[in-house]
Specification:
mainly alpha; Preprotein translocase SecY subunit; 3-stranded antiparallel β-sheet; two-stranded antiparallel ribbon; 5 strands; globular
């Protein structure tokens, strides 16, 4: 405990770091307050207090910190900006002009501008769909009766678009003047805001009727901690490929000088390069069959479709795990370019021992990546289905969602990234790091500087 207090004192004694932490906390508080401000034309007292919608809408509600189900001005959160960022990243893979822009400072600034414009378009479309959602029976009693449909549509689209742009601005300000990645922190805070209520609800349910409820609750907490440890290992796991730099000799044979020293380094390849994206894609795909629930007259087909909407069913977990594995390989192939990495190594006058530069190096790196992606994909699939298994074993749905899945993967990754920045400030000011066994590494692993993968926030 004394060591923890000393670490906190060291962190607080660094003036710049202290200002960044306070700035980040203030902006996050502004965001959380906005999540409870209802849209114009909505009566907050008549809103149904529920866990929120399921399926893809449940994902949006989770990323928005519950603002989606509360009909808040931040109901869409930062997801339109994330969607626009992912689209621009994927466009850079298939469109050479955008790929060229991504490598230049001026080009990256233009891409940032295009992403913001695209965010406005995406938000306007999603806001229009949200108006239709608000007119469903769940919210119908909360709508102001003297507010015309057209005016409600106009005001909601404008307010939601402005709200998303404001949240995007908060994220950028946190990134520039705060600590950590602002967009990722906003999503993480929204997700973890449900945790205290979920754990209290689980504790209350297990204590009903006495018996061994408290013991079961403590066992669940122990398993929950073990899951977090496993997700940290999955997030930080890397395969290090040895790397040598060629010696450069200047002078004649009698007076030669080694100016490079033949230094040795490594290329860190992430076991889970795709991050949380395969789980998000798989959840979106699993939501599609539920659209056809009411269209099938065949009892077996209707039962199968219904099973695909229940995260506790065997078919759901089997198909979901297969989709996660498939999307892990697909997304890794999109963001990972071994040929570009091999070219960078050649330009930096470096090489992998025993492997010829050029095409052989690219093939070697691609083979290693395929091998480590397989266990990473399996562990990611297990993490994805753990909430369903926990719910099947009697854990409440709110607390079960933290047993892996999107919630904890994002939470663990963002916390590691933020702690990595804090540790960098400590080391720069000649303090000890946060860990005795070594430095903290987040989702972005620094190695040779030759480039490994491209990443998306959260």
């Amino acid at each position: 405990m004394k060591k923890l207090i000393d670490k906190l004192k060291n962190i607080w004694s660094i003036d710049e770091l202290r200002k960044r932490i306070v700035y980040t906390i203030v902006l996050i508080l502004v965001y959380r307050v906005g999540c409870y401000i209802a849209l114009p034309g909505i009566n907050p007292s008549k809103l149904v207090d529920e866990q929120g919608p399921g399926g893809i809408l449940g994902i949006l509600n989770m990323f928005a910190g519950g603002a989606f189900s509360r009909a808040s001005i931040f109901a869409l959160g930062v997801m339109p900006y994330i969607s626009a960022s992912i689209f621009m990243q994927l466009a850079g893979i298939v469109i050479p002009q955008i790929a060229k822009m991504q490598k230049e400072d001026s080009g990256r600034r233009k891409i940032t501008t295009y992403t913001r414009y695209l965010t406005v378009i995406v938000t306007a479309f999603q806001a229009s769909a949200y108006v239709a959602y608000l007119r469903s029976p769940q919210y119908l009693s909360a709508l102001a009766p003297d507010y015309s449909t057209f005016m409600f549509w106009i005001s909601t689209v404008v307010v939601l678009t402005a709200g998303t742009l404001f949240v995007m601005w908060l994220g950028e300000k946190i990134t520039d003047r705060g600590i950590g990645n602002g967009t990722s922190l906003i999503i993480m805070v929204g997700i973890l805001a449900r945790f205290p209520h979920s754990i209290v609800q689980e504790f209350s349910q297990k204590n009903v009727g006495g018996g061994g409820g408290l013991l079961i609750f403590l066992i669940e907490i122990a398993i929950f901690i073990a899951v977090i440890i496993g997700l940290i290992l999955l997030t930080q796991g890397v395969r290090k490929i040895p790397l040598n730099y060629a010696r450069r000799i200047i002078g004649n044979a009698n007076n030669a000088k080694d100016v490079s020293g033949g230094s040795r380094d490594f290329i860190p390849l992430k076991v889970n390069s795709a991050g949380v994206m395969p789980i998000i894609f798989a959840q979106a795909m699993m939501f599609i069959p539920t659209i056809f629930t009411g269209f099938s007259t065949n009892e077996k087909a209707a039962g199968f479709i219904q099973a695909l909407s229940d995260n506790r069913s065997l078919w759901y977990n089997l198909i979901y795990a297969i989709l996660v594995i498939a999307f892990t390989y697909f997304y890794t192939a999109l963001i990972f370019n071994p040929t570009e990495m091999a070219d960078n190594l050649k330009r930096n006058n470096s090489f992998i021992p025993g492997v010829k530069p050029g095409e052989d190096t690219a093939n070697y790196i691609a083979t290693i990546m395929d091998r480590i992606t397989l266990p990473g994909a399996f562990f990611l699939a297990i993490a994805g289905i753990l909430p369903g298994i926990a719910s099947l074993l009697g854990v409440t749905s709110g607390f079960a969602s933290f047993f892996g899945g999107t919630s904890m993967l994002i939470g663990v990754g963002v916390i590691l990234d933020t702690l990595q920045q804090v540790e960098s400030y400590l080391l720069m000011n000649h303090y000890d790091g946060l860990m005795k066994t070594g430095r903290i590494t987040g989702r972005t692993v620094s190695g040779t500087g030759t480039g490994t993968t491209r990443s998306v926030s959260a």
